[in-house]
Amino acid sequence: MTTASYGTSATEAGDAPARRGRAFVLTVALSAALLVGCLLSAGLGAYDIPLGDVLSSVQHRAGLGGQALDRVGESVLWNVRLPRVVLALLVGSSLGCAGALMQGVFGNPLAEPGVIGISSGAAVGAVASIALGLTFFGTWTITVCAFVSGLATVLLVYALSRSGGRTEVVTLILTGIAVNAFAGALIGVFIFFADNAQITQITFWQLGSLSQATWPRVLAVLPCAVLGLLVAPFHARKLDLLALGERPARHLGVDVERLRIVLVLVVALLTAAAVAVAGIISFVGLLVPHLLRMANGPGHRFLVPGSALGGALVLVAGDLAARTVAAPAELPLGVLTALLGSPFFFWLLRRTRRKQGGWA
After folding, report:
1. Would you place residue 92 in the very low, low, confident or very high pLDDT band (cuts 50, 70, 90)?
2. Could you give the angle at the alpha carbon of 153 between the alpha carbons of 99 and 118, nearest 5°?
3. Which burial class, exposed, middle or buried, applies to 107 when counting CB atoms under 10 A from its CB (0-12, 13-18, 19+)?
4. What is the pLDDT confidence band of residue 4, given thresholds at 50, 70 and 90?
5. How many Å apart are CA 278 and CA 206, to the nearest integer?
């Protein structure tokens, strides 16, 4: 056991420079692709704006030269396109980072915020605020309701999953399935009592979309997203130690239960804020960490910030596709990610089962 461990450590140590090199290349590639995606998303649409004009307008607003566009162009770029791009960045990075944290915390590649009920719990709060016409926090009302209900849901699932001071992954996922079903029933109750206008608003909200992006919505999600994205990387080393197993991690000084509680709260913060402004967008938190893990291994020092970058890229590209593929109509973003993510999830299940020789 000891020899094997030392052998593994020596192999990992020898592979470390190569992994750092791959991580650097991936970070540069993701950043470059994200920049290109943002420029394309800002310029393409029903009112095309050349990329040079986009850059010129941004430079002009930043006081670095450039020229302002005509009145219509300025309005489309700064009041419609850029809020949408920034919101896609925040939502995508939040979902990608949350997925990497969930899989690290529970040591399960199939874990993601939606599986344990955070998304549906946040949806209950958001749908309730729409159906009941709540406005006590102004433009922040839906965000606050989604965050509170998402946080309450994840704490409930976590508490119900604990037994004998331990949190079993299987129990956690099964509890999440039950809570998801209960949340779906609550959403159905609120829809039953809602009027036609509210039902329409709830239906489009549940399909997931960034079409209602405005600067106030960006400001509503910004504090939660930034706080969660700043806190998450500081726990990457502890997640690497936790990947060795709970007992070895405790011997190396990791307070496992405290780490789980802190990171589950961070995941609730990121996911609830994203769900509140964009509706339910599935599979981003599952897909992105897996792709990066296959590209560069399981080390969380790259995986956590890399998943944030990858999630932002997926959402920016997905939103661009959603509003241009079937133009002038717009596909719901959540539907598009589910259409692409479901086959990947099925492939992942088959691949995991084949490698492990079965689930039992």
Report:
1. very high
2. 25
3. middle
4. very low
5. 9
